[in-house]
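re: ur msg from earlier - yeah i can do the iron/sulfur cluster complex, just paste it... oh wait u already did. ok heres what im feeding in:
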Amino acid sequence: MASITGNTPAEAVFERVLPNALVVKSNELFALARKSSLWTLSFGLACCAIEMIDAHMSHHDLDRFGVVTWPSPRQADVMIVAGTVVKKMGEPIKRLYEQMPDPKWVIAMGSCATNGGPYYRSYSVVMGVDHLIPVDVYVPGCPPRPEALLYGVMELQKKISQDAKKRTLPQPLQRKPTPS
Ligand code: SF4
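and the outut:
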């Protein structure tokens, strides 16, 4: 009597010719490489920068996520805006962002970079860095702890993978600039 084996799928020819080979879409493969090797442009604007520096030190060790701090925008992927964005810094921030190669991402770290924080509606402070450049991840807090930045980096990694699956280029929201 013939045994009932159920609905067995046919053997994949590809697996027979190339055993143990993985098949992935190229943009997902590139996203995997990019998210595992984020180089952050190293500059801090105010007190949040101390927490950002701490996140790179041995205790929190951002390096284990492939995050390396880098002193030039020419090779950096991620800009971490850590601190108060005063209006005088607006142009340098925009210039540094434009000098970074595509694809690139921005993390707004702390209340000041998110919406002006304690300096909300101050005459000299920009009400969030997204008035100048597009932001992908916001890390709340005044200041956020290094663990919060770590979580923000992991969220950015998730976003990079999801964008690759959707086969779209990253399209972060950007607020319209407010008249100064
Ligand atoms: S959010 Fe708070 S800790 Fe961070 S730069 Fe602004 S005032 Fe300083």
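cool cool. The CA atoms of residues 48 and 113 lie 9 Å apart. ping me if u need the other ligands too
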